């Protein structure tokens, strides 16, 4: 799994903790953020977490799953994610209540990148106030 724009390590660090058998890569272009997550990795002894200080456009590795949170509008982050996905892989993007507008605006970009929008998963953050959030799930089509 690749976490584009991992920032402080979310969701890469919790996923690496919960799924020890999954190789997780956190990617961020800001070295200071990668160094902070490297400290978490060492402290928590997360052998399944690797970190890359670079931009998504520069990577060549293909992943089964790509995730992103708070990086950019869906159309833009689809352009980053799709070249990094294996055929049949999934891209899961954390989004706010504007998710449906972003999906509509990204429709052509999704199709151009040989992908299909699958679903939106709605959830609430466990806080005193109601914070609705959404996961947009997109699948890269397999080449036939």
Structure, briefly:
With 144 residues, this protein is α/β, with parallel strands linked by helices. The protein is 30% helix and 36% strand.
- As laid out across the biggest beta sheet, the strand order is 3-2-1-4-5-7-6
Strand count:
7
Largest sheet report? 7 strands, mixed
The proportion of residues forming helix, as a percent range, comes to: 25-40%
Sum up the overall morphology in one term.
globular
Poorly predicted regions: none
Strand content: 35-45%
SS summary, helix count: 4
Radius of gyration: 15 Å
Looking at how many chains there are and whether they match, the oligomeric state comes to: single chain
Mean pLDDT: 92
Gap between N and C termini, in Å? 24 Å
Instruction: Briefly note the structural class of the backbone.
Output: alpha/beta
Element string (H = helix, E = strand): EHEHEEHEHEE
